[in-house]
Amino acid sequence: MGYRQYIIFANTADERGESLYQLDRRRARVFTMTRLVMKFGGVSVADGARLRGVAELVSGFRPDNEVVVVTSALQGVTDQLLECARASAKDGRVDDVTAFIGRLTERHNQAIDEAIKSPQIRAEVRAEVARKLSNLEKAYIGICYLGELTARSIDYISSFGEQLAAPILSGAFRDLGMDSRHYTGGDAGIITNSDYGNARPLEKTYELIAERLTPIRGVPIVTGFIAQDEKGVITTLGRGGSDFSASIIGSAIGADEIWFWKETPGVLTTDPKIEPSAKTIPSISYVEAMELSYFGAKVLHPRAIEPAIKKGIPVRVKCTFDPQSPGTRIVKDELNQNGIIKAVTISSNVALLTISGAEMIGTPGVAAQVFTALARAGVNIIMISQGSSEANISVVVEDKHLDKAVEALQRDLPKEMVREISQNRDVTAVAIVGSGMVGTPGVAGRLFNAMGRAGVNVQMISQGSSEHNISFVVDSGDAKRAVQEIHLEFGLNQGWAGGSGGETS
């Protein structure tokens, strides 16, 4: 980890008239200061009491660290904002908007009272929240009269959750005696394209953030999830957007680490609801983290750490309710000492498609035609497998995309080539992830022997050439048993004293 070193002198000269260079060494204090970006969301910012808790938690890391805080909306607010927007476009009832704004005002005023003790700071924050709510109400009324809800309007409406939370959190810091200013993502310098709902930062973003947030004064509070395009129109960063915001900011200001504060103790070996003996993984690589996220782990969205990866900045997942716990550190280098595999995860909202036909054998470009048809229909392929006979191709897609995937394949593939397109919604994708698999023989054998002992039928298998994961498809009713058996087979329930299940990697 890179640190910034500071020398703090009590005075330029002491009371006896000594020069700076004659100053006694005990009059100077040398220490290392770490620059951190901390993102809070979910239960961590559920209400005013939790916002106060965030301010108190962060204060424990200062003044020996520089901290920039990224915040999400109060828990559930964004969903409520969008629900009201859809109802406004559909029904156009202004009275319903007024009632909703009243409830939103009451909730945020209560949060202000819980988070801030100073009457003066309370009054300042309350006035700012009221101004934002007034703008929100006007937007809703416009939607009522127009009777339509555009992608641009959705981004504008959904941005208010963070816009309302940030002033309250900043006020809580000021109430504790720390200097603090709040920024929207756009104010902080996150400039994106105009792809509303799924915007991407432009390259100049990184320079702008560095200009606007550094040198760091006090504790800046930045809204996660939201940004703005080059015209100043509000955009949002899509799913995992708040984590993405923190990663962008950390990359721009040269953070030493980026911390995601969650309700969980870190990245776990599996879902503890499936296997109660799941353990926290102390350290994993960027590649492993992204594989886990892609295959269903909910702690991080796959793209959330992309900006950190580019700069090689470590990312840490910590638990808000156990701040002393080190959590999971995500780093560039792959660490194999923790066993062959690190974790097992599942994706349950998937469906299996199999395209088969004797005429597919030896016909060039069949896979290309399948991919092209699905791409045109906007269907993302999660997994693919093709037998050596070339008589069939199996793909796994999101369950919600199954119908249009089948329709696209039936429409675009030559009828004389494809005999059947079968589908199965009652499946779950299971993946094991770990850099220890690279070059280690027998991993797949152990995995599928374990499935055989557990009586789990494997319908499809896929492994990338990187060897960081093996994924396969089973009946949904067998998924829990599969995860538990894998967890036991590879010793993941033993923690990280070894975790290799009797083998070394």
Provide tags for this entry:
VC0802-like; alpha/beta; 18 strands; 15 helices; 505 residues; 6-stranded antiparallel sheet; 9-stranded mixed sheet; globular; Carbamate kinase
Overview of the structural elements:
By secondary structure, the chain is an alpha/beta fold. It has 3 domains: 4-36, no CATH class; 47-243, Carbamate kinase; 343-494, VC0802-like (2-Layer Sandwich), CATH 3.30.2130.10. 37% of the residues lie in helices and 22% in strands. It has helices at 48-59, 77-91, 94-115, 119-146, 151-158, 160-175, 185-188, 204-213, 241-253, 286-294, 306-311, 366-376, 402-412, 443-453, 479-489; strands spanning 4-9, 28-40, 65-71, 182-183, 191-192, 221-223, 226-229, 234-236, 257-262, 283-285, 315-319, 328-331, 343-356, 381-386, 392-398, 420-433, 458-463, 469-475. Strands 1, 2, 3, 4, 6, 9, 10, 11 and 12 form a 9-stranded mixed sheet that branches. A 6-stranded antiparallel sheet has the order 14-15-13-16-18-17. Strand 14 (381-386) and strand 15 form a beta hairpin. Helix 2 runs parallel beside helix 4, helix 3 (94-115) packs antiparallel against helix 4 and helix 8 (204-213) packs across helix 9 (241-253). The radius of gyration is 26 Å and the shape is globular.
